[in-house]
């Protein structure tokens, strides 16, 4: 079993290395290795789940006085669920990519990066201590950078990759400090040791440490102040968006919070996490309402759903968060891949106002997208219904205000998803490409069909009867949202909202000007800091210290040069004086 | 009156001072050189006297070595002075100030 666990982790790495070292010459071989590795990991995961029980295996990597760092795997219920999501959905995305990236020049490079990404993600899932998690955390950062910037000759893609990486680094800085604080306070970095070492008096430390650790999740899971990278990351190939935004990278933050929940449980950090989650979900849902790019709508929807999960963690229910994470992973991957299928059919047209009427032209994509939309909106009996219900239920029990936020977000979700669905798939085609659209090949539609199954059924493994009040509230919101979206957008040729709510629509379209705000902040603060640093460097370091040293030395040299008369007798005189002084000095 | 160590040391000191004064005030390189020898021998006198009064022969052995080395040194030094004189037609240190910037 230990070998199986290690293989799950190492197969994708092996694939990335082999492709990188030589297999890249052959497109077929690279793709086969990459898909084979992730499918192999998935099968091994199923094997582990079948075997049941918990498993821990580790090798010591570093040992210092007071610090031991292992590379260890921890396989329990939490990581099994997550492994299933990562390798299962990751595998389907690999297969979908075979079709989507068929015509790309750098097909092999794409699969090498994909394998590297899956390797890093599995590392986070299996890590049994903070340091190993942090290493793989950064590996996910770098491989997402490579994937988002895959088409790096497009400057927007290169910028988006940079933005994603840097934004994540901001959060990771907090994460690292949090890890150090935890280590300083509790003397260990292993999750098992930490949970043993935790006692009442350390709670004050872990509050701050917990919040700093949450900063890491804030970056990866794109929560409120650091959410800006995720919509831009849509510049990557669509399967990458599905992988990063649905199943893996953004889920890593939530997963990590659930993994270290014992540390933050009961501290003030929980409150902050819950509010940040709620705020993110509300804000992202509002932004999603006025986007026109099919992938961006889905990206904001991801943000909003991640906000839900983080809120659930903050309200003390990691179970609900993980439940929503797993159902969301399947239906959001389905939606993204569906969007990918549409984008390919329309020759890389992403504006929903240039789509329309795709229902008859792309029936398989249409039906699977329909299922994904239903699941995301939380229509009863679809998977999203149960998990969303669970989170809203948690909110109702602990924080009324957040409950209202969650319900309102559910309304917005229904509204923007119905809008997307009606505008893109129903009505008449609004562009020449949409008229000529054809269904995608089987390589792309089969993963969609496969993903449709968990999108419907994934909710049942943890389903329980919902609270009647929650059920009523969300059903009312669901019906209301669909009706409103249907009235507004059915048969519409352009979005009627901007004309009616000028300022609100503008703010939503402008994404509440976060990018501009950060730009301004960087221009002002960072630019001035840079100027200050430059001044210090130029004046103090270069001016006073470097040139000062050189100046005083030269001045002393000039003065001393006066004594160099070249006169032998003078030298002899000074020499004698010196010796006499030395004698007096030593003898007295 | 039996001479004491002090007397020898006074002689040695006087020799040394005279030598030093010569080095400082005289202009001719040859004379300066001779003054230097005087200082060297002042040290020798002190060493021999110390050796004699302490009943330890180490100082005298040292003096033998110094004399030997000084002989070699004198030949080198004089050769240098002669060479310098041939080149510059002077042995006056006032004229030999090319080290000055």
Q: Roughly what fraction of the amino acids of chain B lie in strands? A: under 5%
Q: Mind summarizing the main beta sheet of chain B?
A: none
Principal-axes geometry of chain A comes out as elongated
* Percent range of helical residues of chain B: over 70%
Q: Class by helix and strand content of chain B?
A: mainly alpha
Count of extended strands of chain A:
2
* Topology order of chain B in helix (H) and strand (E) letters: HHH
Give average pLDDT of chain B, whole number: 89
Unreliably modeled segments of chain A: none
CA radius of gyration of chain A: 29 Å
- Helical content of chain A (DSSP H or I, runs of 4+): over 70%
Q: How do the SSEs of chain A run, as a string of H and E?
A: HHEEHHHHHHHHHHHHHHHHHHHHHHHH
Oligomer: heterodimer
Biggest interface: A-B, 10 and 15 residues
Mean pLDDT of chain A: 84
Span between termini of chain B: 56 Å
Derived from helix and strand composition plus strand pairing, the structural class of chain A reads mainly alpha
Properties at a glance:
heterodimer, A: 588 residues, mainly alpha, two-stranded antiparallel ribbon, 76% helix, B: 101 residues, elongated
Describe this structure in words.
The complex is a heterodimer of chains A (588) and B (101). In chain A, strand 1 and strand 2 form a beta hairpin. Chain A is mainly alpha-helical. A two-stranded antiparallel ribbon of chain A has the order 1-2. Chain A starts with a helix and ends with a helix. Helix content of chain A is 76%, strand content 3%. By secondary structure, chain B is mostly helical. In chain B, 77% of the residues lie in helices and 0% in strands. Chain B is built from three helices and no strands. The mean pLDDT of chain B is 89. At the A-B interface, helix 26 of A face helix 1 of B.
Gist of the model:
The complex is a heterodimer of chains A (588) and B (101). Chain A has 26 helices and two strands. Chain A has helices at 2-21, 27-51, 77-100, 107-126, 130-148, 155-186, 191-197, 203-220, 229-232, 238-247, 249-259, 261-264, 268-289, 294-314, 318-345, 358-361, 363-377, 383-398, 400-425, 432-436, 442-457, 468-489, 497-500, 502-509, 514-561, 568-587, and strands spanning 55-64, 67-75.
């Amino acid at each position: 079993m230990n070998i199986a666990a290690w293989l799950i982790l190492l197969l994708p790495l092996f694939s990335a290395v082999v492709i990188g070292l030589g297999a890249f010459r052959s497109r077929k071989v690279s793709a086969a290795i990459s898909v084979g590795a992730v499918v192999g990991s998935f099968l091994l995961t199923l094997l582990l789940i079948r075997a049941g029980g918990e498993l821990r295996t580790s090798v010591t990597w570093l040992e210092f006085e007071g610090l031991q760092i292992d590379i260890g795997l921890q396989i329990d219920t939490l990581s099994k669920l997550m492994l299933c999501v990562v390798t299962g959905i990751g595998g389907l995305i690999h297969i979908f990519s075979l079709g989507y990236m068929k015509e790309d020049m750098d097909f092999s490079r794409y699969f090498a990066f994909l394998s590297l990404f899956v390797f890093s993600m599995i590392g986070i899932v299996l890590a049994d201590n903070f340091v190993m998690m942090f290493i793989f955390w950064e590996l996910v950062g770098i491989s997402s950078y490579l994937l988002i910037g895959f088409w790096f000759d497009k400057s927007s893609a290169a910028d988006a990759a940079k933005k994603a990486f840097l934004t994540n680094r901001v959060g990771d800085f907090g994460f690292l400090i949090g890890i150090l604080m935890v280590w300083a306070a509790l003397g260990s970095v292993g999750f098992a040791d930490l949970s043993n070492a935790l006692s009442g008096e350390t709670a004050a430390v872990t509050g701050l440490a917990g919040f700093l650790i949450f900063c890491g999740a804030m970056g990866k899971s794109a929560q409120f102040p650091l959410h800006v990278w995720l919509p831009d990351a849509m510049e990557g190939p669509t399967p990458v968006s599905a992988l990063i935004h649905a199943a893996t990278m953004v889920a890593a933050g939530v997963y990590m919070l659930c993994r270290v929940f014992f540390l933050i449980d009961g501290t003030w950090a929980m409150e902050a996490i819950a509010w940040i989650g709620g705020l993110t979900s509300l804000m992202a849902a509002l932004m999603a309402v006025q986007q026109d790019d099919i992938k961006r709508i889905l990206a904001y929807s991801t943000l909003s759903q991640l906000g839900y999960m983080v809120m659930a963690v903050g309200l003390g229910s990691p179970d609900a968060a993980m439940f929503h994470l797993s159902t969301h992973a399947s239906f959001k991957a389905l939606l993204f891949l569906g969007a990918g299928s549409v984008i390919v059919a329309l020759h890389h047209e992403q504006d929903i106002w240039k789509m329309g009427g795709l229902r008859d032209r792309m029936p398989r994509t249409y039906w699977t997208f329909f299922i994904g939309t239903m699941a995301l909106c939380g229509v009863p009996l679809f998977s999203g219904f149960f998990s969303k219900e669970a989170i809203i239920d948690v909110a109702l029990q602990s924080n009324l205000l957040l409950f209202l936020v969650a319900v309102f977000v559910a309304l917005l979700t229904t509204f923007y998803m119905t809008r997307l669905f009606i505008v893109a798939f129903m009505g008449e085609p609004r562009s020449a490409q949409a008229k000529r659209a054809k269904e995608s090949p089987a390589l792309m539609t089969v993963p969609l069909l496969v993903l449709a199954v968990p999108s419907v059924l994934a909710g049942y493994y943890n389903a329980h009867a919902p609270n009647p009040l929650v059920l009523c509230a969300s059903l009312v919101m669901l019906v209301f949202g669909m009706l409103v979206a249907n009235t507004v957008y059915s048969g519409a040729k352009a979005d009627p909202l901007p004309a009616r709510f000028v300022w609100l629509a503008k703010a939503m379209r402008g994404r509440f000007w976060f990018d501009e705000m950060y730009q301004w902040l960087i221009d002002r603060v960072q630019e001035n800091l840079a100027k200050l640093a430059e001044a210090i460097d130029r004046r103090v370091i270069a001016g006073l210290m470097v040139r000062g040293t050189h100046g005083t030395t030269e001045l002393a040299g000039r003065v001393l040069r006066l004594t160099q008369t070249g006169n032998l007798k003078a030298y002899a005189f000074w020499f004698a004086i010196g010796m006499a002084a030395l004698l007096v000095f030593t003898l007295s | 009156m039996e001479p004491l160590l002090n007397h020898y040391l006074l002689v040695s000191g006087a020799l040394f001072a005279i030598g030093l004064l010569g080095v400082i005030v005289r202009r001719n390189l040859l004379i300066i050189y001779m003054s230097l020898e005087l200082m060297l021998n002042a040290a020798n006198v002190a060493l021999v006297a110390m050796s004699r009064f302490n009943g330890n022969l180490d100082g005298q052995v040292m003096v033998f070595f110094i004399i030997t080395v000084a002989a070699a040194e004198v030949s080198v030094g004089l050769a240098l002075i002669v060479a310098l004189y041939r080149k510059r037609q002077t042995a006056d240190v006032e004229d030999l100030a090319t080290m000055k910037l």
